[in-house]
Amino acid sequence: MSDLDLRPDARVCGGRAEVAAAPVHELLRGRPVPLGESTEVRRLLPNLGRRMVGAWCFIDHYGPDDIADEPGMQVPPHPHTGLQTVSWLHQGQVLHRDSLGSLQTVRPYELGLMTAGRAIAHSEESPRDHDRYLHGAQLWVALPDAHRHTDPAFEHHHELPLVTGGGLRATVILGELDGARSPGTTYSPLVGADVTLPGGTSARLPLERDFEYAALGMSGAPVVDGVPVEAGSMLYLGCGRGELPLRADADSSLMLLGGEPFEEKIVMWWNFVGRSTDDIAHARADWQAGHRFGEVHGYAGTRLPAPDLPATPLKPRGRTR
Question: Residue 83's domain spans which residues?
Answer without folding.
Answer: 17-259
